[in-house]
Amino acid sequence: MVRIAVAGGSGQVAREVIDALVATGKHEITVLSRRDLQSADATDPGVKQRTVNYGNVHNLTEALQGVHTLLSFVQILSDPNQESQKNLIDAAIASGVRRFAPSEYGSKGTNHMAWWAGKEAIREYLEEVNATEKKLEYTLFQPGLFLDYLAFPYKTAKYLDPLQSVFDFEHRRAIVVDGHEDAILTLTTVSDLSEIIARAVEYEGAWPRHGGIRGNRLTFSDILRIGETVRGHFDVDKVYLEDLRAGNLKTSWGLEAVHHAVSDDQAAELLRAVSIGILLSSVEGAWDSSDSMSRLFPDFKFTTAHDFLVRAWDGKP
Predict the structure, then answer these.
(1) Which residue ranges does the chain devote to CATH 3.90.25?
(2) Strand (E) or helix (H) holding 228
(3) Which region holds residue 225: left if phi is over 0, alpha if psi is between -120 and 50, else beta?
(4) How far apart are the first and last CA of the chain?
(5) In angstroms, rounded to a whole number, what is the distance separating the alpha carbons of residues 186 and 144?
(6) Which of 36, 117, 151, 299 has the smallest number of Cβ neighbours within 10 A?
(7) Architecture of domain 145-188+216-287+299-313 in this structure
(8) Strands, E, within the chain: which ranges?
(9) 8-state DSSP, 162
(10) What is the DSSP annotation of 15-52?
(11) Which of 122, 145, 180, 163 is nearest to 271 (CA)?
(12) What span, in angstroms and rounded, lies between the C-alpha atoms of 128 and 36?
């Protein structure tokens, strides 16, 4: 049995992970939240809930007494200075927490993705606090892009909402950087991520610092081939590096669905920036996650992109 605290536990990915942890029947789980969780976003009845002040290290230290593993799902966009996670790290060290996972759950690199600059700030802070001695064991859970997003607009997980990507299976179209069709994307279902995290919590060895989780490692061309097998012919908009680097996205279509944490007045600019950022960063290898965490569990069978997409789009118009 491991005592686990989940910060930002009302978020979509957090709730997927909490369900996987609860399903093991082995752990004592406490969700930390800024507010009392209402019935609409309450977790399993067996999961404890505790209201905390992320601006108060003393309050967080008290809440983390006796906790073995702290998983953070704190929303990065809502905390530009990342004070919440820095305070969580300080409190975890003060209270004797053994393991910590910051709010990651995406690409291994953040280049060209300013909306994820907070991840770099926390990575640097973790290195800083461990510079002279290892005060806190941690890993960066990095599953790449959620495979679930290729089923947009259909929901394929219990909590995770659909989001658009540069691969639009609904309308059979995609955006690809000309000459870089071999750029790599790691694609992992949120369910598989959750199962790996549940296993990692029980793993008795040291966590790898870069917790790469590689469900599928595919090139843009691979994804298009699977897409055409599942959905038929795709129209492909080719874009050029020089345009992207200049901030120009010259395509016949663009993303329209934005993350719930983004305000309406920020949406249009962020959607354009997300497309440009994902395309540029993929060319530079930011989405080519390692398998350093997933290879600790060689018996685990990941959901393949082909099988997932066949099921997701079966019978869809």
Answers:
(1) 145-188+216-287+299-313
(2) helix 220-231
(3) alpha
(4) 46
(5) 5
(6) 299
(7) Alpha-Beta Complex (3.90)
(8) 3-7, 28-33, 48-51, 69-72, 99-101, 137-138, 140-142, 145-146, 167-168, 173-177, 184-188, 210-212, 216-219, 235-239
(9) P
(10) HHHHHHHHHHT--EEEEEESS---GGG---TTSEEEE-
(11) 163
(12) 33
Q: Strand (E) positions, 114-215? A: 137-138, 140-142, 145-146, 167-168, 173-177, 184-188, 210-212
- Which tokens belong to 138? 């941690």
Q: Is 67 in a helix, a strand, or coil?
A: coil
pLDDT in tens, 159-207: 999 999 999 999 999 999 999 999 999 999 999 999 999 999 999 999 9
Residue 239's SS3 state is: strand
Q: The tokens 């639009």 sit on which residue?
A: 168
* pTM attached to this predicted model: 0.94
Contact 64, 5 (CB under 8 A): yes
Exposed, middle or buried, 133 (CB in 10 Å: 0-12/13-18/19+)?
exposed
The percentage of residues in the chain with a pLDDT greater than 70, rounded to a whole number, is 94
CA distance 105 to 95: 25
pLDDT for position 263? 59
Report the amino acid identity of residue 162: P
Asked if 192 contacts 213 with a C-beta cutoff of 8 angstroms, the reply is yes
Q: How many residues in total does the chain contain?
A: 317
> CA-to-CA distance for 313 and 311, rounded, in angstroms?
6
Q: Is the pLDDT of residue 120 over 90?
A: yes
Peptide bond into 208 cis (omega under 30): no
Q: How many angstroms separate the CA atoms of 199 and 102, rounded?
A: 17
Rounded to 5 degrees, φ, ψ at 94 are -65, -30
Domain with CATH 3.40.50.720 in the chain: 3-138
What is the CATH topology of the domain spanning 3-138?
Rossmann fold (3.40.50)
How far apart (Å, rounded) are the C-alpha atoms in residues 144 and 221? 17
